[in-house]
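ZP: hey, is the zinc ion complex queued? I don't see it on the tracker
AM: it wasn't, my bad. submitting now with these inputs:
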Amino acid sequence: MHELRKDPLLSRWAAILENSLKPEEYGTFPAPREGLGLPAAGAQGHITVERGTDGIRVVKGLRLLDEKGELGRKGEGIYDKMNPIGVHEVVMEEQAGRSDSGGGQPEAGNFRAVLDIYLRRITALVKDARLRYVFIFRNMEGCAGGRPAPHGPQGSTERLHSEILATPVIPDFIKRELDGAKQYYQYKERCIFCDIMNEESRVESRVIARTEHFIAFCPYAPRLSFEFWIVPRRHSCAFEETSGPELDDLARLLPELLGRMGRALNHPPCYYIHTAPNRIPRKNLWHTLGDDYHWHIEVLPAGGLIGGGSAVDLGSGFALLATSPEDAARYIREA
Ligand SMILES: [Zn+2]
Ligand SMILES: [Zn+2]
């Protein structure tokens, strides 16, 4: 049986695979993904959850997580663990256009369909009271292993896909953001993200783009060189509350910026949607969540190892940066 285990020091949860991969299985791409039960090229034989427009479809992913059953929280010595309840789905973008940018990003029309799928899946998954968080991210195959897949020519076997991971625990980085935002709100009675947006607009040097509904900038103290955030200008804690016009705007902005970053670094980046946890009434409910948290997208270089990032910062959170965010913003702007 797979399980979720809690690090007692950092209160971070880890999913532990029952049948561990052998070291040699990490050496061949894409063996690790298939070992975890992720769809192989073409996703033949995988169960379709939902179909979108433009040939986009959502298929079931990881066997590591179990959609049925109870959480079964229990102790093991001094440790805590629970059953690996959760949902993992992969959004396959079969028709992903790769005509315009060196970064291999699909066109804007296609992106609106992808965003619609995110919205529909989050709306469906937040109804499950066992699940605390729906995490959506998008990368190129091979990116998650920290070793970017070779940047192939147009029409190569590199495929774009997003992953949707719904878990009974809140991921560590999100938990830290929620805690920080809550503390800031208690102190200032203002949303920290709204304050950051105003400050970045005032300073201007880290801003990459500004549209009617969004602002994109490299954060003041990033974890990785070239990291940038896309933040909605209207305060909202949850991605699923995004309006139609905002989605249209994001569907134009996101592929444009991914393309720029892809050209700047010669490899398409990954992105992560940071949104509020499921707000199902329970004890210890986050009463101010709607006021203090603000959803956003974080775009990171593929594999997290480009631009001076290293195992040190990925392992400890202490960043060693080779490129300032001001310069990174300029490189991406000018690419
Ligand atoms: Zn805000
Ligand atoms: Zn974030």
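AM: back. Residues 191, 193-194, 235, 294 surround zinc ion (ligand 1) (CB under 6 Å).
ZP: great, adding it to the tracker
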